Amino acid sequence: MNDKEENMDPIFDSFPILKSDILVLKKVEEEHVDELFEIYSNDVIFRYCGILPRHNKDTVRKMIGHFERDFNKQTRVKWGIFAKDQQDRLIGIIEVFDLNRKVNMATMGYFLAEAYWGRGYATEAVRLVLEFLFLRAGINRVQADVMPQNEISKKVLLKNGFIKEGTLRQAALWSGKGVVDREVFGILKEEYCLSK
User: Fold this and answer.
1) What is the number of other CB atoms lying within 10 angstroms of the CB of residue 166?
2) Based on the number of CB atoms within 10 Å of its own CB, is 144 exposed (0-12), middle (13-18) or buried (19 or more)?
3) What distance in Å separates the CA atoms of residue 169 and residue 151, rounded to the nearest whole number?
4) What is the distance between the alpha carbons of residues 125 and 122, in angstroms, rounded to a whole number?
5) What is the pLDDT of residue 8?
């Protein structure tokens, strides 16, 4: 095992709980199925995502087990986003996936329940995960892929120091969208540390 592989270990030692003054990022549990269904069944939330909405609550319930399975297989971390003053209500999801151990990088994605848009929660969730990945997990690069029309998501990334690195034209097959352009945003650990 090389040093870069060892650096990944803090991600999967035990499920990482991340906290700030306004948010808690923690594991999604069975008790959150109603809020999770509210999110995944809303077509508006996934308008610019490569994720198909789920309109069956049993399907969404099974997804919670998949979150756990993916974490145990060390392929993905899917945090529930909770407001600190209401920690029993799931308001969104933020995830880290495509962990590439050879180049020490990860991809990030996130979405919020529509009722919580425009409050800075997505920006804060991204900030918390970046802090964890760069300062505790030793990751060197984090990227996010965004559909060109998703202006709100791009603003969240730019506020957190990401740089638009380019557009991959007709480069991705996204569920329900067909072949789409993808804008790639990235941030390196050295850039993150310089901004602090």
Assistant:
1) 11
2) buried
3) 17
4) 5
5) 53
Express each pLDDT in 79-120 by its tens digit: 999 999 999 999 999 999 999 988 999 999 999 999 999 999
Report the relative pairing of strands 178-188 and 141-146 from DSSP bridges: antiparallel
- On whether the CB atoms of residues 122 and 112 are closer than 8 A, the answer is yes
Task: Give the integer Cα–Cα distance in Å for 62 and 33.
Answer: 9
CB contact set of 47 (below 8 Å; sequence gap of 6+): none
HEC assignment per residue over the chain: CCHHHHHHHHHHCCCCCEECCCEEEEECCHHHHHHHHHHHCCCCCCCCCCCCCCCCHHHHHHHHHHHHHHHHCCCEEEEEEEECCCCCCEEEEEEEEEEECCCCEEEEEEEECHHHCCCCHHHHHHHHHHHHHHHHCCCCEEEEEECCCCHHHHHHHHHCCCEEEEEEEEEEEECCCEEEEEEEEEEEHHHHHHCC
pTM of the model: 0.92
Query: In this structure, are residues 106 and 97 in contact, taking their beta carbons and an 8 Å threshold?
Result: yes
